[in-house]
Amino acid sequence: MADELVFYTNPMSRGRIVRWMLEEVGQPYRTEVLGYETSMKGPEYLAINPMGKVPAVRHGDEVVTECGAVCAYLADAFPQAGLAPPLGDKKRAPYFRWMFFAAGPVESVVTNKSSASSPRRTNRGWSATAPMRT
Predict the structure, then answer these.
(1) How far apart are the first and last CA of the chain?
(2) Please, are residues 94 and 101 in contact by the beta-carbon 8 Å criterion?
(3) Nearest-10 crossing angle of helices 15-25, 67-77
(4) CA neighbours within 13 Å on the CB side: how many for 5?
């Protein structure tokens, strides 16, 4: 199928964000679950995403990687879902600001918090491994 949506993910990845977006746009999609050390680094997937990371979405001939980019792409590719302001709308600039704020700083904090590697302030700046000062 020319416009088939294929979602590449791993259950322990940020792919849940993209899965949620795919459900919101309401289009049928196929999921391919990849292993971190196996299929994600294999030649077949590296042809899709040379960085060997998930999530990724293939929509026909287009491939989009990185959560924020995939979500923005899907919102634009399926405007009938009403998930993004249309091109030319003045609300589009703040939409992008908040979309990528969530995909950058917010996602980073949530990931650090959930993996117990919260950054610590040191005399040289921030470090994810510095011991906590008491």
Answers:
(1) 59
(2) no
(3) 10
(4) 18
